[in-house]
Amino acid sequence: MEPSDPSTPSSDTQTNRPEGESPVSRRALLGGIAAAGVAGVAGCAGDESASISPVSIDDGQACDQCGMIVSDHPGTVGQVHFEDDGPEGGRPAQFCSGTCTYTYRFDAEDEGRTALATFLTDYSAVEQAVFEEGGDTMFSSHVESDAFAREPELTVVVRSEIIGAMGPDLIPFSEDGDVDEFVAEYGGEAMAATEVERATLEAL
């Protein structure tokens, strides 16, 4: 809400208004223009985000959160495209797990950076391998661009039996049927990927 402008006349003090014309204050007119401007900016930002596509993660690329090589580890991987180039040098930030993806993005947003698009592995779109290692059940990782889906399109399962690169992780799907089948087999709780918060990660 903008502070009031004492120099702006109210509708009670305006003069020379033709009889029968409804009073419209200058503040209301300017407010409408400002609102339209904000909507226009938001529309541009939305258009920019919608035009962003995921990229394949290169072999040897280190996770921007923990430093581990993304392609060397199992489970969900992610990428975040920011408005600025940031420390990533013009590429999207890339991660070896869902927890690393969200942790990095939350920290970056706290520092004032703007995330335009977040992508996670879509296990509805890949043929994942399931394997056991050290008594843990794991899913294969997938770093090719078409293995990713945009965050709003995904449901993640938290607190399942599946272990990722950094331990308990978020397992994302774009198809509700796949979510149901996964929960029936591996347990966990489903939630919209856009609803993940720091507390979600802490409770994994």
From TrEMBL:
Gene3D superfamilies for this protein: 3.30.70.2050
Compositional bias ranges of the Low complexity kind: 1-13
Chain positions covered by the region annotation Disordered: 1-26
Annotated InterPro entries: N2O_reductase_NosL (IPR008719), TAT_signal (IPR006311)
Pfam families: NosL
The name this protein goes by in its record: NosL family protein
Upper lineage: Archaea, Methanobacteriati, Methanobacteriota, Stenosarchaea group, Halobacteria
